[in-house]
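#onboarding

Welcome to the new folks! Below is a worked example of what a typical request in this channel looks like: someone posts a single protein sequence, and someone else replies with the predicted structure as tokens. Don't worry about understanding the tokens yet, we'll cover that in week two.

Example request:
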Amino acid sequence: MPNFTKKAIKETFIALLDERPLNRITVKDIVETCGINRNSFYYHFEDLPALLEEIIAEQVQELISDHPTVNSLEDGFDAALEFILKNRRAVLHIYNSLNRDVFERYLMDVCCYLVTTYLETAEGLELDDEDREMLIRYHKCACFGHIIDWLNSGMRDDISTYFHRLYERKLGWERFG
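Example response:
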């Protein structure tokens, strides 16, 4: 029964985040929607920030489990966007909240994981440790920066198409350079 309650709390919280900003969601809203008492909420979570962090951490773990390999940086970027695109309004509400740092920390972790996984599994790519670390840092920051810039613009553009086009052009420049 506790797992059902915990799951219901998380699903309710995400649904409420889709409707309104994080600072307008209370424990009372969640427990009334779930039909549980406040003690049940506090049995599972210390507070709303703890609930938010657990949901984000689970999404990151799910993404990592779903992507043990990454075939290209573009595919890695698309993987980083999966949860964001699926939960656009909720993510914007988190991003525009006081808990933005939690989101950004996990987003950077995702970008790092995807770039590192790509570089470790890419065929024919032999790098020394220093070059590998340099490329990981560059591409994780590029991925993170593009996503943050896109969030700042209100997610108006098709960021996936943009990123694919960017890497297509970058590869073209390398061939002519």
